[in-house]
Design a protein that fits this description.
The complex is a heterodimer of chains A (about 110) and B (about 550). Chain A contains four helices and no strands. Chain A is mostly helical. Chain A has one domain. Chain B is built from 24 helices and five strands. The chains are: A mainly alpha (about 110), B mainly alpha (about 550). At the A-B interface, α1, α3 and α4 of A face α1, α2, α4, α5 and α6 of B.
């Protein structure tokens, strides 16, 4: 697995900040929060999981988003039938991030 | 931090992408009220209901069931699409403030996701320049913008998966050998196919045809079949597992695919094999004729470069060229599926044409310097001149038309909800039981009919045009339905929009009706030229 280098994290941080500022200017706080939500829920958990595979950095980001928009809401939808939808979002996020890190620790053993 | 070439390329792509998003969000940047045709209403309400009620559902809520209860032919009264797309919108709507912007912005990001997937794939295969030119031209693609505005939301997003699915298969195939392989590309392909099916089945079938053609092309050239049952088996298990998460909706997709069209269609003439687009005359009333025009949708200037690009790919026939050719051929096959009597949504597949025309057009213009052998040492400079010409033509021909349609889309106050209607709808949501009908009197069915459905959508309650069972005698053959409504309905008199019309006929008609019939009934809401009564039969 190839982890992003520290300088890449710095660059990714700048890109994310630019995106959030852009959406804030065109659609206000609602736009910025929506953009943050899209990145946070649909990309971050599956990005961590895909970190366990031999993929390039760009592949991980793109695949993470396109997989995330299917996997994340599927879990949320089922949980949302039994508990509050908002809580289901939170639990799904924690579950998927934990799954990604757990898989990573298993690979390192 | 050291600035790398990849950083600069990422920033350039980001500028192009954000500019596209800026353009595509123009319809709701200033006026933050919902808009769109009936398709848009259905997508909006599925997402908004989940976010507003903080719960998901198996059986459709009454106000959605009224219109769409029969859409799922496998299990009626349940969702007809698999839930992920609308749940995505609902998740962002729950996370971000406001009701309208999060749903519409998430949809805009999804609709423009093809810029991301196309850039990523073309960059991997051909480098940065063709990739950025492709995304740039695609930002102004009228074939994408028009269905996006009409409300074909999931379908727009579904098409963004096609290049990625083909990419995964391509990398699995081209890197495969008995000693070494990269099976994770096949696993990711299985997952992406399942997610694409959940987003929109039409684009999934397009991908399947694309995989078949790409596999055939690569086999003919490379003479190898990457037949590893373990890899294929795992990809298949992932695919089937994901589709089994929502069995009713998967069942609906399978059942709908197997069903024969109930509408009588003429078998297409052989001459259609020589045309890309279906016949515009077959879609009069649902899609404007310009949608079928290459010139109006892509710009005639792209045609020579597109043809040069196709010629270059056919002559060169590298694996990466076969990738684009297979995608192109699969589009042709999908657009001619009426020859095997699959007519459903035929015209909608045309909306995927720019996605493959655009990269081939970019490759076409960037290939021209390679023909000028006498200028070999200036090839690089000529390439950049070609790119500059490309950008100039896009800005001159494609950008103005796209900007014009996006900046003026739904900008009339009589075709989208006005704040008074939204406020009244919020009141209805708080004060009217969920299974109650609210009959809306005001917006005439012809021309403003969708307003009643928008009010229904925003109030999360069934709303019928009251005229339906009184003035129009819509239910004269079903008196029990009319009677049920007359005995139970809430009645909304909405003058907020018809008051803006030059024609005072509607206002006068409903004012007279209200004075004559509503005097004995309880007035519950009276604000901004909207009144809501509880109809009490005497």
């Amino acid at each position: 697995m190839s982890l992003p280098k520290n300088e890449d994290f710095g660059f990714i941080g700048i890109v994310i900040a630019l995106i959030l500022v852009f959406f804030y200017f065109i659609l206000g706080i609602s736009g910025a929060m929506s953009a943050l939500g899209i990145m946070l829920f649909f990309t971050v958990p599956s990005y961590i999981i895909l970190g366990n595979f031999d993929l390039s950095h760009e592949e991980k980001i793109v695949f993470a988003f396109f997989i995330g928009v299917g996997i994340f809401p599927s879990i949320v939808y089922w949980l949302g039938m039994f508990i509050s939808f908002k809580i289901a979002i939170f639990i799904t996020f924690v579950l998927l991030v934990a799954a990604g890190f757990t898989a990573k620790s298993f690979r390192h053993r | 931090m050291k600035i790398k070439k990849s950083h600069v390329e990422t920033i350039i792509f980001l500028v192009v992408y954000l500019f596209a998003v800026y353009m595509w969000t123009l319809p709701f940047q200033k006026n933050r009220t919902p808009y769109g045709e009936f398709d848009a209403i259905s997508h909006w309400e599925l997402a908004d209901y989940i976010a507003e009620t903080d719960k998901t559902f198996i059986d459709l809520p009454p106000f959605i069931d009224y219109s769409y209860g029969g859409q799922n032919s496998f299990r009626p009264h349940t969702l007809w699409y698999p839930p992920p797309f609308h749940t995505d919108l609902a998740i962002i709507s729950s996370f971000a403030p406001e009701r309208v912007v999060p749903v519409y912005l998430t949809n805009a990001v999804f609709a423009t996701a093809i810029l991301v997937s196309l850039f990523f794939v073309v960059r991997s295969l051909y480098g940065f320049l063709p990739a950025i030119l492709s995304s740039f031209l695609l930002s102004f693609s009228m074939r994408d913008i028009m269905p996006y505005l009409w409300g074909q939301w999931p379908e727009r997003f579904g098409y963004a998966f096609i290049p990625l699915i083909l990419y995964c298969f391509y990398f699995y195939y081209t890197t495969y050998s008995k000693e070494d392989s990269k099976p994770h590309y096949l696993y990711i392909m299985g997952i992406l196919l399942a997610v694409q099916m959940m987003v929109h089945p039409l684009s999934f079938f397009h991908s399947m045809v694309g995989l078949l053609v790409l596999g055939t092309f690569l086999f003919i050239k490379n003479r190898k079949i990457p037949l590893n049952f373990r890899h294929i088996g795992i990809a298949l298990v992932l695919f089937i597992f994901l589709l089994s998460i929502f069995p009713y909706q998967t069942g609906n997709v399978i059942k709908s695919f197997m069903e024969k069209s109930s509408k009588k269609h003429d078998y297409p003439s052989v001459s259609r094999l020589f045309h890309w687009a279906p016949e515009p005359k077959d879609f009069v009333g649902s899609v404007p004729a310009s949608y079928f025009s290459f010139s109006d949708m892509h710009g005639m200037w792209t045609l020579p470069f597109l043809l040069i690009g196709i010629a270059v790919l056919i002559i060169r026939r590298e694996n990466r060229d076969l990738f684009l050719l297979a995608w192109l051929v699969s589009l042709y096959l999908i657009l001619h599926r009426d020859f095997i009597e699959k007519y459903f949504f035929l015209h909608r597949s045309l909306s995927a044409s720019a996605h493959i025309f655009v990269p081939i057009t970019a490759i076409g213009i960037l290939s021209i310097p390679s023909f000028l052998v006498f200028l070999k040492k200036y090839q690089n400079i000529l390439k950049y001149i070609g790119a500059a010409v490309f950008v100039f033509l896009v800005l001159s021909y494609n950008a103005p038309a796209a900007y014009s349609i996006l900046s003026s889309a739904y900008d009339s106050p009589i075709i989208r909800l006005v704040p008074a209607q939204m406020e009244a709808s919020e009141w209805i949501k708080q004060n009217v039981p969920e299974d109650m009908n609210v009959s809306v009197m005001g917006p005439p069915w012809d021309g403003m009919g969708q307003m009643v459905y928008w009010i229904s959508s925003y109030s999360l309650r069934i709303s019928l045009p009251f005229e339906g069972f009184l003035t129009w005698k819509k239910y004269k053959d079903k008196p029990e339905i009319a009677r049920y409504h007359l005995l139970n309905d809430y009645v909304m008199f909405d003058y907020s929009q018809i008051g803006m019309l030059q024609d005072r006929r509607f206002v006068d008609q409903w004012l007279a009706f209200e004075q004559q019939y509503m005097g004995n009934h309880t007035l519950l809401y009276n604000k901004n030229n909207i009144r809501v009564y509880k109809y009490e039969p005497s």
